[in-house]
Design brief:
Order of helices and strands: HHHH
CATH topology of one domain: Arc Repressor Mutant, subunit A
Number of helices: 4
Radius of gyration: 20 Å
CATH class of one domain: Mainly Alpha
Distance between the termini: 48 Å
Structural class: mainly alpha
Largest sheet: none
Amino acid sequence: MVPIETLPEPAADLPSPEWLSEMGDDLRRLKDAVRRLPRRQREVFVLREYCGLSYEDLASTLGVRPGTIMSRLNRARRAITAAVQEERHE
């Protein structure tokens, strides 16, 4: 047996279980919203946000103009934001 007084204090900067649960829920909402995007918006979003491709690289890779990339990315971000907020309020 170890006396409780000898145990170290828990670190103050560790996230709470509640915070971890909320972050897990938010991550699930984000993944679900990305999966529901139309294919063209999803591919632009994933390549930009997860792979870090520039607009020029995206345009070259996908064979479209940079303006098309910006438009698809804007639509994807708006759709994801709306879907996550909607599900959060249900």
